[in-house]
């Protein structure tokens, strides 16, 4: 691997788990206050809508994650008879972005990585800054989709990260847990991606992958 000067790192699913207490509260709310009565059904439906709105939100049609949450609530009210305290639901959603628990390998990675780390996220920057402060982590920068009005895998967010880092596309690698958002997204901007495959799932040949962030550290040094 070529000499690099900076690391780009995904947030949700890469740095933080998606099974925190606030996420469980969200699932419970949907199951208690809608026609959705299975956790897997609720998670699948919400995740599908999030990805749909993110893909459709681009430049002039861009919606923030908070606006997407409001749209999902509206759709679920209409389609799945969702009811209850929507202000509480939205606030809990925001808390889930902030308080999501770290994976065990993230803190050691930050402590031992010799390169500046830039967090690349579809979530709002203000929530990520609160999360980093709470967790005692200090990334060199946080690049949010809101800044460029384009979610991953659109290349604009990665190009903005290159500007913030002051690096050429050949001088960084992007680490993330999603083939489509992280690997394809990075490649759209000419950046090499490394898939963090913690579950050791079968992946297409040609994709560089690792099962642990400390394994990635060995690959890039």
Percent range of helical residues: 40-55%
CATH superfamily of the largest domain: HAD superfamily/HAD-like
Detail the poorly predicted runs.
none
**How many discrete structural domains?**
2
CATH class of the largest domain: Alpha Beta
> What is the fold-level CATH name, i.e. the topology of the largest domain?
Rossmann fold
Report the mean per-residue pLDDT as an integer: 95
Judged by helices, strands and strand pairing, the structural class is: alpha/beta
Strand content bin = 5-15%
Shape summary: globular
| Number of extended strands | 6
Lateral strand order in the biggest sheet: 3-2-1-4-5-6
What's the oligomerization state? single chain
The largest β sheet comes out as: 6 strands, parallel
Which descriptors would you attach to this protein?
Rossmann fold, 221 residues, six-stranded parallel beta sheet, 6 strands, alpha/beta, 10 helices
Walk me through what this model shows.
The chain is α/β, with parallel strands linked by helices and 221 residues long. The protein has two domains: 6-17 and 100-220, Rossmann fold, CATH 3.40.50; 21-99. It contains ten helices and six strands. The chain has helices at 21-32, 39-56, 65-79, 86-99, 106-112, 125-135, 145-148, 156-165, 179-188, 213-220; strands at 6-10, 117-121, 141-144, 172-176, 192-196, 209-210. The protein has a six-stranded parallel β-sheet, with helices on both faces. Strand 4 (172-176), helix 9 and strand 5 (192-196) form a beta-alpha-beta unit. Helix 1 (21-32) runs antiparallel to helix 4 (86-99), helix 3 (65-79) crosses helix 4 and helix 4 packs across helix 6 (125-135). The longest helix has 18 residues, at 39-56. The protein is globular. The N and C termini lie close together (9 Å).
